[in-house]
Each structure stands twice: as structure tokens, then as C-alpha cells.
Amino acid sequence: MTRNAIPPAQLSPGLELGRRIRLLREMAGLSQQQLAEKVGISRSAVAFWETGRSGHVGKHLGSLAQVLGVEPEVLLTGMAYKAIQETLTPDENTMLTLYRQLDPLIKLQAQKWIERRVRHKADEAKTPDQPKSA
Fold it and tell me: Among candidates 5, 68, 1, 66, which has minimal Cα distance to 50?
């Protein structure tokens, strides 16, 4: 196997871990500073980890996972399994199936796009109908 054939996650595990930390932090609605305070580290350490320079992340893995609400294995592997009892409509099931196939950063972009659409819809509901200009 050539070096070019090795998946990026194997070439740079620190970067993949950093991406997971950032994604989970953003999903938790935390700034780097807020995460740092909850874990008991500096903001620059969080920034350091998120850019793929793992440093001493290992000794903080447990508290980091706890603050982010995940198992430490989720940070290390990106994999999580949880039984969720939910009834989905066919279109929701399709969306979830497609969403699960996305890379973590694309998932975040998709979430942000949906949030913008929902906010736009809410904003439209707040403003009275105005005549459309030609």
C-alpha cells in the first residue's frame, strides 16, 4: 500500500481528534474558553488540540469527554452507539440515513444550513406580509 492510499485519519490522528473535539464543542454550544474553563485548562490548549497538535490531551480525555457529554471512545474513534427509541417519518429516516454518511465537518455545515433555514422561516412568520415589488 502506498502512502497516498492511506486514509487521512491514519496519516494525522491528531488532526482527526482535533476535528472531533471542535465538532463536539460546537454541538455543545461552547466556546473554546468555556470548554477550557470546564475542563480546567487554558483556551490555548483547546485551540492547540483543535488544530491537530494533540499535546497532553490524553491526560484530559476523561474530563473532556464528560464535559462534551460523550464517552472517551467517541473522542478517540469518532464512533458512538446509542439505542434511541424514536418513530421517524419516511422523509426523516431518509434524511438521517444520508446525514450519517457525511463527514463530521459536512454534518456541521448541514446543521448550520438547517438552523439558518429555520431562523429564516421564523423571521418570515414574525414580519407581516408586505407587497412584493416587481
Answer: 68
